Amino acid sequence: MSGINKASGQSMRMQRPCDGLIAFLLSLTLVVPHANSVGAQETDELTSIQARLQRLEDLESIRQLLIDYGRHLDARDFVAYAGLFTEDGEWIGGFGRVQGPAAIQAEMEKQIGKEPQVPGKSNHHIFINESIEVEGDTAHALSKWIFMVTGEGNRPVPVYLGHYDDQLVRMDGVWKFKRRVVYADIPFDDPLSD
Description:
The protein is of the alpha+beta class. 39% of the residues lie in helices and 39% in strands. It is elongated and about 95 Å long. The relative contact order is 0.12.
């Protein structure tokens, strides 16, 4: 029902019970899209945080893989060492080209031996300067290595300086070597030139 307020000359309208509901619903059309955009922003932010966290976890897992490689190599634990490779994983280096964990284990045991190192006559690998690029379930890593032996007077002596070029893959949540190429830089040896 409507009328004119004779004193002010303004139109008066009587409110019906549903008028409040209509006004409320109209206000929601202004609020809900904003709430949806806030929700979408929160979802995007959560997705971004999860992606960044996954990247950090991947980088740390790959660094641990590189550390485990050196630890198992120096401990002459070639069963664990070979387990760091995929079933079709390749190791390419000064000993040639070997594929698959069983073949990698056998080659390392043949070339290096499996007896524990003797203090005062040991050798060690030092790993430094890793650079890792992760792309989903695959990654590429470059890192440096130094091969040290026990020299005169029980002093450490560097024998080789080289680098690794790694293709890595995540399988069942675990990072492994798909392909590891071992380059000797000083003295120089390119294992892929053969």
